[in-house]
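Data card: per-record layout.
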Amino acid sequence: MAMKGRLYHFSLRSADFGQLIDGLCARRDSWAETAKWFRGECKDPFFMIEECRDEEEAQEIADHYSEIIENLQAQAAPQRKRKCPEPVARPAPGTLADGWCLYADTLCAGVQPVERSEDGFWVYASKREAEEAWAENLIDRCHEFLRGERETEEVDSGLFVVPVTLHPDGTVADENNEFTP
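The structure for this 181-residue chain is written out next.
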């Protein structure tokens, strides 16, 4: 059953995504049981039949739920493979750590790192991890735009990825400057 129409975009925590899939599976299974009931194959005495015309309609609805579940699982699969980056705010004592920071050109202070924790700047171990953090920020801002919470010109955060060296005191140095948290 191919459906045409508007696309919706959602962001969910992994536990919430699991709950969503569980709920859709329960509805799919209920409709599949209804189709079995029409065929005389349902053996569950406590089964609640769904309201529909016939076996064909029940099976079409069950199949549509399966398509929705498969579509969501296919979109989630590449995201599951990515580990959530753990930024480092301070390297081990007496060592330096090379990494990547998210920077922005700020109005008052100029170009500088923008993600901080209580211990210092967030430094990602790889360029890819920093780029994923940048992309997540952009996706969040796009969702805010789609919900009417942000204007078009506010979607681009101006963030960009810069290679840095993290010092034990939390200082971050790029090729041009050093920044103290």
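Known properties of this structure: The two ends are 55 Å apart (CA to CA). The chain is about 40% helix and 15% strand.

See the next section for split statistics.
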